[in-house]
Amino acid sequence: MKNFLYLSIFILFTISCSVGPIPVYYTQPIVKVLDDTLEVVFSVPDKDASGWNRYNPSNIGSDTVYISPEVYEKTGTKSFIEKIEYNFIVDGNSVEKKTYEYDIPIETVDKDTISLPELMVIVNEQLAYNIDIEDGYADNVGNGILELLVYYTDLKGEQFSTVPIRRKFKVVKPLTY
Length: 177
Hints:
The strands form 3 sheets. Strands 2, 5, 6, 9, 10 and 11 form a 6-stranded mixed β-sheet that branches. The longest helix has 15 residues, at 2-16. Strand 9 (141-153) and strand 10 form a beta hairpin. Helix content is 14%, strand content 45%. The chain is elongated, with a radius of gyration of 27 Å. It has a single domain, classed as Immunoglobulins (Immunoglobulin-like), CATH 2.60.40. The chain has 177 residues and is mainly β.
């Protein structure tokens, strides 16, 4: 009986001390988009004066706003920014989502803050009308949230995304005299 007890303890001890796989602790890059809280205003003219909903495709009004997001890599790990996605959200509903992909990924290193190339956000009459209708009132003014999301990869090619930042936006139809 004594031998059985010693043998059981020895087997349990041997099993608990077995050499298993050695874990590799991997540090993932964490990229943060620095937030800008200013409201973005799009002034979309109605070129043919028939309303945003009745535009002529050859003569369509639009407004362009250039956004220069800044990103910060928090862990000191090299990462490569590949694309930016922006989404127009009105009353919780996505009205339009677009993605801009960089031909050559932008490298971030050593906890550095970098400015990304300007992102050209265009609102034409059709999108302005959709935003205006989605916010509940057809009053030639639309309000919502512009959401920016940055996608990046690490050295192994795994893709990650930042926490989205949100900025208020307004679409207005300028008065014509």
